[in-house]
Queue: 4 jobs
Job 1
Amino acid sequence: MVPELPPLPALTRAEGEFVDAYLEVVDLLGRINPSRTSHTYGALRAAQALVGRATALRDAVTLMHVRGESEVHAATLARALRVLDGERRSGRVTVPEESSS
């Protein structure tokens, strides 16, 4: 049985696109992370896709600015990131601790 997740906080369309594009960039960076990858081909494909996703992220933030959304509501967006598993996903970007072998 899948546990019920808390609902996403209310977001504007631009904020939703911002969060989605940010997580897509984080996922790609996690696939590129040299301390966590084992094959160059997968890292290469992720690096190639990163350009497009970074552009989408820029466009989402630009749209927020153009629409007059001048403030980033960090607490609300952080809640959305948590619901969307952002903590685990962003953890793949970090360098893992050394194993004591």
Job 2
Amino acid sequence: MSAQGQQLDQELVEAAAHVARTRCRGDNHTIAAAARARDGRIVTGVNAYHFTGGPCAELVVIGAAAAQGAYELETMVAVGDRERGVVPPCGRCRQVMLDYFPGMRVIVGDGGTKGSERLRAVGIAELLPSTYVWADHQLSEE
């Protein structure tokens, strides 16, 4: 990754961390996410936890990006509130990201201890080995 790319990735992590610190309140909103669109815009969002289910922060960002006309997201990261650091996407979010943006990169940690964890950007397909691509399994209308 280029020095420019590393700088942009850090900017994305900082954007998500800022939202996690300033907008996550209580148990309803505990994760913030940020994504960079192809045009350079950064879109942020928070999860909406509810006992009946609710969207993860990554899914909120995808919807918010679409509402803002940013249809081509390139990189995404999620950060936990209360200084929990970068949080990898859940399985559902991984699948949605793959289906919507198969070339997307996701910033994840290496699993090290807090404060010493190294961040890296990986392709979404790397987070889903033996991927299921929904479009590949639809009946053709011949």
Job 3
Amino acid sequence: MAAGSDVVAGFYTATQARDAGAILALLHPEFEARTAPGLPFGAGGVFHGPEETLARVWGAVFAEYDTAPYAETWHETDDGLVVVTGHYRGTARSTGRPYEAEFVHLWRVTGGRITWLHQYTDTARWHEALTPA
């Protein structure tokens, strides 16, 4: 893997471990996240900065789901864009229902830190897990 992919791989390791400090250490101070509109609990949208994204996206998700992203395919372009596909797997805490949602993540790494994320995921799967059986 190239350097950008190594940094991104560290993000997946940190999120699977729910290590907020490690996540923050990987993010550039001017980090921007564009997450899938329709994600539950206000986690979808545009977020600026590591702390805002940690609180409003990953914090919101981890509070409501026992979940993590699992990368399956990796592609790095000549200009440094890292494209990762995979699945989120987990359980909604309120219902105990498991879910699996496909994702595509587009990452930009600059100077050894993540500066940008654009996330696509099947938000319907996230919502289905919140519906009692």
Job 4
Amino acid sequence: MEYLIGVLIAVVVLLASIALHEVGHMVPAKRFGVRVSHYFVGFGPTLWSRTRGETEYGVKAIPLGGFVRLVGMYAPAEAVGNPPARTWLGRLAQDARAASAEEIRPGEDHRAFYRLSTPKKLVVMLGGPVMNLIIAFVLMAVVMLGFGVPTTTATLGTVSQCVIPADEPADRTCTATDEPAPGAAAGLLPGDTVVRYDGVAVASWDQLTGLIRASGGQATPVVVQRDGQEVELTVTPVLAQRPVLDDDGEPVLDGDGRAVTRAVGFLGVTPTTAMVPTGVGEVPQVVAERTWQTMSVVATLPARMVDLVETTFGQEERGTDSIVGIVGVGRFAGEIASYDADGIDWGDKLAGLLEMLAALNLALFVFNLIPLPPLDGGHVAAALWEGAKRQVARVRGLPRPGPFDTARLVPLAYGVFVVLGLMGVLLIYADIVNPVRI
């Protein structure tokens, strides 16, 4: 049941994201006077529709996207010089111009999309992707401000009974020959919250770690909160060789590839992790970082598709960084919702689901900006090209050029559509026969 609830939440948020993406196109288009004849969520056969004003709103059977039909997307033949159709590619473009012109009602040519200025076209076409970015921002804000993010705290999770050398497994069993760990020897217990260390108020685990490392070999007073009361203890951290870490938390290596170590104070305690709400100012930073990470993934999409083919048909296990499709997203949602472990409640699961859906909206934002039709980025690129030509003509004192003949991009749009369809089918197949395990 929890698995199904997770999938249902993902489906509802995904459909809402699609609907709002199309709203991002529709609202500015209507505001600029363009007639919007259709607004639909989904593709294929129509399940429900209703006409309000001059727009038909509805839902279709295949919930893998949506669309708004803006009247006059392509300039009519006479507006672009009546180009001849000498090849089948030219005939495709000609048919697209004719179909677009038929949608324009008599006397309403001024309401056609192609008539908009370049800035207005950009606002309309960027409205959808920007809506996905806003959704991702809102979802991340809910997670970070409402549920919090996993953060190590000054509350002790475990207290080691012995000092284990750095070159031995940290989880091995203590033996009689091992040196007693100073934390256990001083009376620290799991669940203690360190309030002060050497007279310094402790606000975070990172701060406490720094204080412990700096006090090696010194008898140091420490105050912990235990069962609602403050308990004063004295600890003497031992000096132990520990790896030197860089700014990313990775071990620093010497010329021979071995980890560099140095003697630091060691107490033998580990922290607990809690969901701690963040400040409002951290949300934009996190969204920006994840947007950049998503852009890096999209930039390497061809190579990732090749890897997907090799792992799927080569019967290799897919890595956790593999791209996934709609089936994979549903599987992730179900697994997050049905995850069973100590300390994990529905609040944690819901936060995980919302964070995953925020990542999905960031992917939709970045992917739709690829400058290829029929994606929004293709229309943006065409509008920028049209605007650039007009600016060059203005600077050179030449007559204002007519609209860019975007119908010539229709064959390319068909090709991209086929490629995207094949990618979608491959992702669905891979997510079924060789899913990513989380």
